[in-house]
Design goal:
Beta-Lactamase, 6 helices, Roadblock/LAMTOR2 domain-containing protein
Length: 176
């Protein structure tokens, strides 16, 4: 998946290409692809989507507003705001700093959460009394770097804009 998302061009589907990308036998590679497609992680199209062109600074204003019903922010693990939609500058800076604190808190308590409580998630949320997320902090791992996608309201991550965001982040920050 990393190779597909970080590619500068479209990768056509051929069993030999799939085998080379995965390092699996042709049968194992096909089973993996079927598994990914059944779960909605991968989709074959007759006309591929355009690979995003431009810098991350140019593309974030287009992609971020499409990722949730409310406001959106993307921060790195150091608390630097890479982009946002709907927040005042002061709010964005404070929320980016909070994101860095959440990364540190999660790292501090990761063993408890995963090994003792059985939670394998890396996302956090502020919930209302009914348990609905008001503000979600979604961790995106790109190589050795972490980014937090802060989403207000209902996330809409099942859109091409999320795939494009991941592609842009991977092409810029992926360090195999």
């Amino acid at each position: 998946m990393l190779q597909l998302l970080s590619a500068d061009t479209h990768v056509p589907y051929f069993p030999a290409v799939l085998k080379k990308l995965t390092g699996y036998s042709e049968k194992e590679a096909q089973e993996l692809m079927s598994w990914l497609m059944e779960r909605g992680f991968l989709q074959l199209t007759t006309e591929p989507e355009a690979v995003p062109a431009g810098s991350i600074e140019q593309l974030l204003p287009e992609y971020l507003p499409q990722l949730a019903e409310g406001r959106v922010l993307l921060a790195d693990e150091q608390g630097f705001c890479l982009g946002q939609s709907g927040y005042a500058d002061e709010e964005a800076e404070a929320l980016a700093a909070l994101s860095a604190d959440i990364v540190l808190m999660h790292e501090r308590h990761q063993r408890l959460l995963r090994e003792h409580l059985g939670f394998n998630s890396v996302s956090w949320g502020l919930l209302d009394a009914a348990g609905h997320s008001e503000l979600g902090f979604w961790t995106l791992h790109v190589g050795h770097q972490k980014f937090l996608l802060v989403l207000e309201g209902m996330p809409t991550l099942n859109r091409q804009s999320f795939v494009n965001l991941l592609s842009v982040l991977m092409r810029r920050y992926l360090d195999y």
